[in-house]
Predict the structure.
Amino acid sequence: MDRILVLLRHGESEWNAKNLFTGWKNPDLTPKGIDEARRSGRELKRMDLRFNIGFTSLLLRAQHTLDLVFQELGQKDVPVIRSRSLNERHYGDLSGLNKDEARQQWGEEQVRLWRRSYDVAPPGGESLKDTVARVLPFYCQEILPRAMRGERVLVAAHGNSLRALAMVLDRLTPESVSSLEIATGVPIVYRLNSDSTVATKEVLDR
């Protein structure tokens, strides 16, 4: 039985290009981000992967990425479930700020803690631990059962919501996940064992 789960961070967004904290703000993809999403679809097509269902967040950049991938695959009618549970982590008071300007205001170390630590949240926002707390129940209740039934599942989401999933799939600790980087527009293909652990993992990095 196929138990294929593909994770995909959205292509470059307009605020990625401007080096802004984005979180739950809702910019679309840049032309580069559109190209990244289309290339992801072509990579998945090259592997002869087709999907039974897609999952994405409520944010435009992830939804647009998923749509473009399914266009490249010739699968425009795949059912898609959109959920706030898969949104990027909320950056609170940092949302919309330039990252370099934030470092000037609060200091390099404080901004690094907000961005990379597991349990330190920015003012008014979420830590990665908070993000994990909403992503993992959704994964266990909605995503994993479908993959375990043999459905091929594509999740197009965000750097931190996907880091939350990677903690489970790759068995990462709060310490090791702090160094995990997930590139925009690069599919990560997991094949799962019958006990839901990872049999193989392939990063389709061009």
